[in-house]
Amino acid sequence: MPRRPAPLPARVAALAGAIALATAPASARADETFGVSFAIAEEEKKPVQPDAWVEAQLTAAERLFGPIGVHFRWTHRKALATEHTRLETRRDRDVLEGQLEPGVVNVFIVASLRDVDDPALTRMGVCWRRGNEGKPYLVVSAVARPTVLAHELGHFFGNAHSPVPDNIMSYDRSGADVFFDDAQMRRVRVWSKKHVAERWLHPLGVAKFLP
Fold first, then answer.
1. What is the pLDDT of residue 131?
2. CB 3.0 to 4.6 Å from 107: which of 48, 138, 162, 202, for a disulfide?
3. From residue 59, how far is each of 2, 25, 187, 208 by CA, in Å?
């Protein structure tokens, strides 16, 4: 179960401290590396995507987050039970909360992911939480393009969607390189400190992910 949220004054103080650290001069900031747990669905006793596909998603995320000072290391790998291979409803997403690993970014790779607001559609990924206070976790479909994990990590670290083409938080792509803008990068730094202050993430050190 997720850790019970801290009382409001403590959470406000933690966020204030996070903002102060994240907005400090670059020379005063240390890079942070966070572990990532991948739970990978299987069909016919085979993963819906091989490890190389997962590593490509993580490498794309590292290219975007690394310059911000946030890095990722694949620390956990486990098979996702058959009943979670295809997520059709909100409840299907909610029940994944019981499989979260502590202190890391949790990512579930599934065969398909239904849009719960428009069941006629499917999605490539989602940043999800059960209720307003639950710990966020990511779900990525096996049909996702290489930057979908990076997009969902953008949500995990506080960024909303963007209308700017080729911004990583936008759905509009021209084929150019994707990017974060300055405000989004500042927000990633703030939220990385916030997640640490609230003990949702435990930094591993400065070592970077290497595929």
1. 82
2. 138
3. 28, 27, 21, 10
The domain containing residue 71 runs over which residues? 32-197
Which residue pairs from 90-95 have beta carbons closer than 8 angstroms and sit at least 24 positions apart in sequence?
Answer: 90/116, 93/126, 93/128, 93/130, 93/139, 94/130
Query: Who's near 208: CB < 8 A, 6+ residues apart?
Result: 31, 33, 62, 66, 71, 73
Total domains present in the chain? 1
| Residue 151 confidence (pLDDT) | 98
Q: How far apart, in whole angstroms, are the C-alpha atoms of residue 15 and residue 31?
A: 18
Cα distance between residue 88 and residue 23, in whole Å: 40
User: Tokens 């997720």 correspond to what residue?
Assistant: 2
Q: Which two tokens stand for residue 181?
A: 């803008």
pLDDT surpasses 80 at 19: no
Asked if the structure places residue 100 within a domain, the reply is yes
Residue 22 resides in a domain: no
Res 134: pLDDT: 85
User: What is d(CA 60, CA 98) in angstroms, rounded to the nearest whole number?
Assistant: 28
Assigned domain for 105 exists:
yes
Burial of 50 (0-12, 13-18, 19+ CB in 10 A): exposed
| 73 close to 209: Cβ distance less than 8 angstroms | yes
Domain assignment present for residue 36? The answer is: yes
